[in-house]
Amino acid sequence: MSWLVTGGAGYIGSHVVRALAEAGLTPVVLDDLSSGVASFVPEGVAFVQGSILDRELVERTLREHDVQGVIHVAGFKYAGVSVQRPLHTYAQNVEGTRVILEAMAAAGVAKIVFSSSAAVFGTPDAPLVVEDTEKRPASPYGESKLIGEWLLRDQAVATAGSETPLVHTSLRYFNVVGSADPTVYDVSPHNLFPIVFEKLLAGDTPQINGDDYATEDGTNVRDYVHVGDIALAHVAAAQRMVAGDPIEAAYNLGSGDGLSVRQIMDAMARVTGIAFTPAIGPRRPGDPDRIVATGELAARDLDWRMRHTVDEMVRSGWEARRNAG
Q1: Is 11 marked active-site?
Q2: Distance between CA 215 and CA 235 in Å, rounded?
Q3: Looking at the 3D structure of the chain, how many domains does it have?
Q4: Tens-of-pLDDT digits for all 325 residues of the chain?
Q5: Backbone phi, then psi, for 230, in 5-degree steps?
Q6: Mapping DSSP to helix (H, G, I), strand (E, B) and coil, where does residue 312 land?
């Protein structure tokens, strides 16, 4: 039996694939390569190129590869861009999740780990969010992820009395960084680490968006979590399902204390050996001072913990990016 990883050719998904294989759970990848990279799929792993919106393809993949569960990582992940492309965002993230659940029901597959997002919280009143913090997504992306969680919840209710009741969990996290494999790096043009890396490689000066926030050094504070740790949490959730252990509907994969943008910039200079003083730009509209999630529930059930220092996160990401040429 195997586990299907949607978006398994992407930055996060391909790390999940590697972690599954190392844990002895056979991964199968489904990816349309709209943002994924075919070479990120490890040699020997079954790879189906196609869209999660293709209902027939998804069901056929589940059946042909004897899939016992799905780790659903595929989606349109750009919160800022989602404001300009709401219909595309909803098609990929909401309709895509609905199609997967429909295909799973038809194929008798009843386990799913959903890659959600801390964007479901929007701008919370409390600086430290827990699983039950009020959900107020501030973008179509955040809304689409919250609707994805609702779809899982509702399908679980609908199948509760059936032979294959849906078992599900949603993993929420903020900024995923670093690399656990020197051949895989973050290709997103919208994330802080790759933005800074590209600036440094081009000889340009990275920028901080606002330095007058109500934080220790005046810059935003967020969770920055290593992609390898994120992958391990997804696999731990899958293993919990296979073992038949109880699992929560959602877990926050947070650091508990966070890092500021200036701390990230300092680590960038320290690790890369490229001395720079970041330029200070204007605030971005809607950016809160601090959003950090506790990971206590995930630590209890999914062996979640921060296994990497900020320097280790930067170093692994920098080395993987430089290996790409």
Answers
A1: no
A2: 35
A3: 2
A4: 999 999 999 999 999 999 999 999 999 999 999 999 999 999 999 999 999 999 999 999 999 999 999 999 999 998 888 999 999 999 999 999 999 999 999 999 999 999 999 999 988 888 799 999 999 998 999 999 999 999 999 999 999 999 999 999 999 998 999 999 999 999 998 899 999 999 999 999 999 999 999 999 999 999 999 999 999 999 999 999 999 999 999 999 999 999 999 999 999 999 999 999 999 999 877 677 888 999 999 999 999 999 999 999 999 999 999 998 7
A5: -60, -45
A6: helix
Contact call for residues 293 and 223 (beta carbons, < 8 A)? yes
Which pair of structure tokens corresponds to residue 76?
A: 């349109």
Closest among 211, 204, 223, 230 to 11, alpha carbons compared:
230
- Supply the range of the domain harboring residue 219: 178-223+255-292+307-323
Residue 297 lies in a domain: no
Q: What is the CATH number of the domain that holds 26?
A: 3.40.50.720
Two tokens at 3?
A: 């586990």
- What lies within 8 Å, CB to CB, of 199 at 6+ separation is 205, 206
For the record, the structure tokens of 246 come out as: 């109880």
Question: Do 110 and 245 reside in the same domain of the chain?
Answer: yes
Question: What residues form DSSP beta bridges with 111?
Answer: 167
Is 214:289 a contact under the CB 8 Å cutoff?
yes
Given 141, 173, 185, 213, the catalytic residue: 141
Q: How far apart are CA 323 and CA 316, in angstroms?
A: 11
Residue spans of alpha helices (H) in the chain = 11-22, 55-64, 79-84, 86-90, 96-107, 140-158, 192-201, 227-243, 261-272, 296-302, 310-323
Task: Give domain status of residue 229, yes or no.
Answer: yes
Q: Which two tokens stand for residue 220?
A: 């935003």
Residue 81: how many CA atoms within 13 Å on its side-chain side? 9
